[in-house]
Amino acid sequence: MPIPPKFSRRSFILSSAAMTLTALAVVSMPQAAHAYDVTSTSAINLDTRGLALKGYDPVSYFLPGGPLQGKANYSEKFNGATYWFANAANRDAFKVNAEKYTPAFGGFCAMGMALEQKLDIDPLLWRIVDGKLYLNIHKPAQTRWLEDVKGNIEKANVNWPRLKDRAPNSL
Prior knowledge:
alpha+beta; two-stranded antiparallel ribbon
């Protein structure tokens, strides 16, 4: 495919990769009753109820056994998002140090952020890297992210301040 004149080779490749990743996300993710809002300018990936992590317990990612679905009766608000927890002990640990447990890039897909996109996530596709929770939208995105975790985190860290307050559908 010829590169349009307004693109450099690098930006064309990144743009093409981002479009491919977005297209894969659209066709591979089931439509949830409470999907994330593509028009929201929130820096946190929330569903239509204001719930983060699709209701998964953020503390449970850091414990043996991996992520657990949270329960509404163990909830806590932080930075405009509601988090659910599997039990009172996890909720209480979150209250003490919420920054430790909240996911990188507001809970948007780490690979998507490396490609300048705010994409939704599958809460079961995750990694803890240097004490921080990173999530991905689907297996192909996670596979690509894992090919160069350090480099992708660096790219995403550069992109995040510029993109965090933009709506996903504006990128």
